[in-house]
Design a protein that fits this description.
By secondary structure, the chain is α+β, with helices and mostly antiparallel strands. It has 16 helices and 21 strands. It has four domains: 71 residues, Uridine Diphospho-n-acetylenolpyruvylglucosamine Reductase, domain 2; 112 residues, Uridine Diphospho-n-acetylenolpyruvylglucosamine Reductase, domain 3, CATH 3.30.465.10; 206 residues, Vanillyl-alcohol Oxidase, Chain A, domain 3 (3-Layer(aba) Sandwich), CATH 3.40.462; 50 residues, no CATH class. It catalyses: D-arabinono-1,4-lactone + O2 = dehydro-D-arabinono-1,4-lactone + H2O2 + H(+).
């Protein structure tokens, strides 16, 4: 049992706290749960963990739909380390504490005439959480959000606090930009921004076969391109966006259409399909016709354009494959969905990301297509998904895919070592910075070290 003698730590600790991720698919009860307010608090927590040889995990918004943040040891909630430390308008950079939320950062930057170059589908995550898993948006010439980081400060077990950049501790820098918390705790981050800009987006429907015939031209037809496929149909929507200086053109929202029908009624009907799964294709077709079949054009501030409503909790799986494998992967997925009597939810989301040199980034040294699948959990109730997941992962493996680290997957350490040229170097660095494995949890032991005896790489197949 841990005895806390430090008066300051007693003020920021909580007991018997159950942590659950946003989707309510993973949860844990850490032995101690801290809410530090400054770097000194975190240093004291690490000293306590060393004294009692306890595992430590830092958590942000908890949006990762996997057990990457879970621990039975000490959990550090970074929410109160959320300050915007410095905005340099001339150099277009911002320095923030690791727990700052991206949505708040977006608002702050906009007031200073700045913006992030690209964003993911949501902005509820903490900065450190988004970086640690290489959260990404879409745009074949735009990298993931970690590529926007120019400096960071990392608290390690063996070397204390170290500053990292392309010019200082470069190896640690390239590794820590996608480290899942395995190297230490990120304390603050410096991000390269650009002048605030507007995006003009066009969204329209197109048949999947027509998209596959013209895939290369579609991918390169705008700065940012996203495709949604509606399984069990040929229907897709394409979203394209480019920078513009045109006046705002904001589509008026309808509470009845966007909330009553598209959220509440849809969730109610999804719940019914849990008992009658064969009705899923009909529901998907109706939702497409009602909400997505008509073209839409919007001109708005960039950060308001990148994000969209993810609706309600969901199981989700996503992999990055080499860009040239996109057509093959979608054809295989289409064939499987239509030939196995399994009824799955929309959308299958297809996005495109530029290559980078971050050691464990799924886009390391190659332009990639991210393909993500979901199964909604209406009212947080379970739905069958594992047969779908098993088939999807088999297709992704056949296309030389790499899983998105934030999401649940069955890639083994041996497989990951073959897929990532810098995998061994990352493991060596991890052992150097964290020789006693303080920052490792079951997720990291499983996927980086192959140390989980109960892990079965055929997990989804074994539990259909």
């Amino acid at each position: 049992m841990i005895e806390i003698e430090n008066i300051r730590l007693r003020k920021i600790v909580k007991n018997n706290i159950k942590f659950s991720n946003w989707a309510h698919t993973f949860e844990c009860i850490p032995e101690l749960y801290f809410e530090p307010e400054n770097d000194d608090d975190i240093i004291k927590i690490i000293e306590l963990a060393k004294l009692y040889n306890k595992n430590v995990r830092a958590v942000g918004a908890g949006h990762s739909p996997s057990d990457v943040a879970c621990t039975e040891g000490i959990m550090i909630n970074m929410e109160k380390l959320n300050k915007i430390i410095e905005v340099d308008i001339e150099k277009k950079t911002v320095v923030v504490e690791a727990g700052a939320r991206i949505d708040k950062l977006n608002e702050c930057l906009w007031k200073h005439g700045l913006a992030l170059s690209n964003l993911g589908s949501i902005s509820d995550q903490s900065i450190s959480g988004a970086i640690s898993t290489t959260t990404h948006g879409t745009g074949i010439n735009f990298g993931n959000q970690s590529t926007q980081v120019v400096e960071l400060t990392l608290l390690t077990a063996s070397r204390g606090i170290i500053n990292c950049s392309a010019n200082e501790n470069e190896d640690v820098f390239k590794a820590s930009l996608c480290s899942m918390g395995a190297l230490g705790i990120i304390l603050k981050v410096k991000i390269q921004c650009e002048s605030a800009f507007k995006l003009k987006s066009n969204q329209y429907s197109m048949k999947l076969n027509d998209i596959l015939k013209n895939l290369d031209s579609i991918i390169n037809s705008a700065e940012h391109v996203r495709i949604w496929w509606f399984p069990h149909t040929e229907n897709c929507i394409i979203w394209k966006a480019d920078r513009t200086t045109e006046n705002l053109k904001i589509q008026q929202s309808s509470y009845f259409k966007d909330h009553i029908i598209s959220f509440h009624l849809y969730q109610f009907l999804l719940n019914i399909t849990r008992c009658f799964p064969s009705t899923v294709p009909l529901l998907t077709t109706l939702m497409f016709k009602y909400k997505f079949s008509q073209p839409k054009q919007v001109i708005n501030d960039s950060y308001k354009q990148f994000n969209f409503d993810c609706l309600f909790p969901q199981y989700t799986n996503e992999w990055a494959i080499p860009l040239e494998k996109t057509k093959e992967a979608l054809e295989k997925l289409y064939e499987w969905v239509n030939g196995n009597g399994v009824f799955v939810h929309f959308p299958v989301e297809v996005r495109f990301v530029d290559k980078d040199d971050i050691w464990l980034s799924p886009a390391y040294k190659r332009k990639v297509c991210y393909i993500g699948i979901i199964m909604y959990r209406p009212y947080n109730k379970p739905v069958p998904y594992k047969k779908y997941w098993a088939a999807f992962e088999e297709i992704m493996r056949s296309c030389d895919g790499r899983p998105y680290w934030a999401k649940e997957h069955t890639m083994t350490a041996a497989e990951l070592e073959k897929s990532y040229p810098k995998f061994k170097e990352f493991i060596e660095l991890q052992k150097s910075l964290d020789p006693n494995g303080m920052f490792l949890n079951l997720y990291l032991k499983r996927h980086l070290f192959g140390m989980d005896e109960n892990f079965n790489k055929d997990y989804f197949k074994a539990k259909l």
